[in-house]
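Record 1 of the preview.
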Amino acid sequence: MAFTLGIVGAGQFAGQFATLFHHHPGVSAVHITDVIPARADELVRAVGLAGTFASFDEMLASPEIDAVAIFTQRWTHGPLVVRALRAGKHVYSAVPMAISVDEIAAIIEAVRETGLTYMMGETSYYNPSTVFARQKLAEGAFGRLFYGEGDYVHDMDLGFYEAYQYSGGENWKATASYPPLLYPTHSIGGVLGAWPTHATAVSAIGVVDQRGDGVFDRAVSQFDNDFSNATALFELAAGGSMRVNEFRRVGYPSHLRESRFRWFGTEGSFEQLALTTVWQDKTGVEDISHLIDTHASVAHDDPSLAHVAPALRDAFVSGYAAIHEAERGRIPAELIPLHNGHEGSHHFLVDDFVRAVNENTLPPVNAWQAARFTLPGVIAHESARRGGERLTIPDMGDADAR
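->
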């Protein structure tokens, strides 16, 4: 079977995923809507999509749309997801899942009551480092895991100014102050994507910005936020701890590797820098960079990247890593020659959602898993606002069986 998909938002990320969904054999047609109709029209022409809808409401009301993929501003996802589920549509959502405990709980309630598929498109679950660590944990090579660390180190100067200006219009500075810990899934999702546990408590520290350019200025910020960098230390249900760093002002080559990870166990450990990745045990160190590093699948000037700001294109041209090869065989042949992105994750994201809808199975990053990747950051931001106060993190539980 194949289903029809409606994409909500025709921005930089949507353009890349529209191409993949359009070519996936499990999707029969792709439509799109955007609050700026010209962008939707342009994407239809560029990719060859089935057509546009005048509004999100019109898309939800259409019986020909079976599922929607939401690529709107990051703080808008929660309510849009619930509306789509309640309208009878399966949902793929860009990250984050939502920005409050209530919004996250509402999504899980809607998934449970409707029985529909929800998947959050977290790239780090498919990050080569996370795939490698998942395999090592399954082999028992870590021994007992007791510490994990995830960094999302993406400087504002390396593409984010352009991205916020593209999506935010004249008032872009108000939204460019988006709190780092409310975008936690690249760092948390990488760590917990390999380590099947969840966070139970947190203490976090926020760093007040000093650039003085009107971004991360509480007088301007839509979110009353002046933190540009933040660090959170979590207690985990499995025992041990997890630390994440969300940095938006950092002297680091984000375009080379914006998400990086570490795991320490009693028998083995994994550590990563921008260009080097190692596996270690009590006998020595093995450089495994050749297994983790991705190769470019398209050139930077490829027409399929026309909608992406030049400073962000490195994230989209990364292809598969060697560690992906065992799973690559399940990707439909139609997708293999197309651009991939974010450490080789895009093909897996699209295929897992399509399979989950068509086979009525739970995707890897289902609503419950998405909550465990997102909710800790929501509570961590509150901790940072309270000067590092230790706060308990509610847990939405394990996924319902299908």
